[in-house]
Design a protein that fits this description.
The protein has 351 residues and is mainly β. It contains four helices and 24 strands. It folds into two domains: 282 residues, Methylamine Dehydrogenase, Chain H; 40 residues, no CATH class.
Length: 351
């Protein structure tokens, strides 16, 4: 697998001194050993909060994914057959489904925002649930509005190339299919017999797909691992350190390394060395982004979204204070050239 990095990010981070990509964007990962949602820095994978959301008070079963939905965070619980809703501060709001008559969910996995709906991936028929299907939820009312029946056991959907890639598990049925936003099958992406028990999918900065294959595929002989697929669905490599590890999810960090999860914990593979290191212990699940990983506009120095004279004043104050954030040209010192650099950035504007 090649070493991918976000183009020019390192240089921009050096120039800016601080970064939204590093400080404001988080990766949320449920830890089903301790029934908490962990929060990691989306740039380098460092642990930010070991208990971002405490699920113990809800008698959690197997929390699978924590997904931002508007100004809330929804956590799917595979064993409790429900989706728990929280504020962005982690305060409990309420639940969808549950082990009650007509709860509508049973043995659920991922929870994804697709178009103007939320899709939850369902396998069982208890609680009035539809079996193998995508259960559709209205995010505004937090109510189930229908389902799309499937022919295999689904896990996750990834918006990709104008479609949604849906992963499956099941003997002889593990594959990835393409669906449109209306739940209409558009065709295969990865056929059966290639990988087994595919759980989460995620896209890399280079446009490829990371597929977490949990177990061995007898037909192809491929071991469990995080596999990289090109835009045509062809397998082009496996992430070092993930082989035979039973991975559940993978995510490309802002620095180009790969974070991935399994029953042992949260791990990061250094793509330059191929060495994988466990960074958190305990059974860990799917990975979701909370926040914005886009590179901040340097000219908007006061961060208010507009380019005005106040950005010049903020830059001047930082320069006078010796703040490295004013090192616009990134040469390690504050000089007249930083003023010229800032002027050029300002004149170029922000997209």
């Amino acid at each position: 697998m090649t070493n991918r990095t976000l183009i020019a990010m390192s240089a921009l981070l050096a120039a800016a001194g601080s970064s939204i990509a590093q400080s404001d964007a988080l990766l949320l990962i449920p830890n089903s050993s301790d029934d908490v949602v962990l929060a990691f820095d989306a740039f380098d994978g460092s642990l930010v909060d070991a208990s971002f959301i405490d699920l113990t008070v809800l008698d959690a079963g197997t929390p699978k994914q924590a997904t931002p939905v508007g100004d809330e965070i929804w956590v799917s619980d595979q064993i409790r057959d429900r989706v728990d809703r929280f504020t962005l501060d982690g305060d409990f709001i309420g639940a969808i489904g549950g082990q009650v008559p007509d709860g509508g969910l049973d043995n659920i996995r991922g929870v994804n925002v697709i178009g103007d709906e939320v899709w939850v991936f369902n396998d069982g028929t208890n609680n009035g649930a539809p079996g193998e299907a995508i259960v559709r939820i209205d995010p505004d009312t937090a109510t189930i509005i229908g389902n799309y029946p499937l022919t295999a056991s689904p896990w996750f959907a990834l918006p990709f190339g104008g479609d949604n890639l849906v992963s499956y598990s099941g003997t002889g049925d593990t594959r990835i299919d393409r669906f449109d936003d209306a739940g209409v099958l558009q065709g295969p992406f990865l056929g059966t017999g290639e990988l087994n028990f595919i759980q989460q999918l995620n896209q890399t900065s280079s446009g490829t797909v990371l597929a977490a294959a949990f177990s061995t595929q007898s037909a192809s002989g491929r071991a469990p691992g995080v596999y990289e697929l090109n835009t045509s669905g062809e397998i082009i490599g496996v992430v070092s350190g993930t082989e035979s590890s039973g991975p559940r999810a993978a995510w490309e960090l802002g620095n180009g390394n790969i974070m991935w999860t399994n029953g042992g914990g949260v791990n990061i593979t250094d793509v330059s060395t191929g060495i994988a290191t466990e960074v958190f212990d305990g059974s860990s699940q799917f990975i979701s982004l909370l926040g914005d990983t886009s590179t901040p506009c340097f000219a908007d120095f006061d961060g208010d979204g507009d380019l005005t004279i106040f950005d010049f004043l903020a830059f001047q104050n930082a320069f006078d204070a010796g703040d490295a954030a004013a090192d616009c040209d990134g040469d390690g010192s504050l000089t007249l050239f930083d003023f010229l650099c800032f002027q050029n950035e300002f004149d170029a504007g922000c997209d």
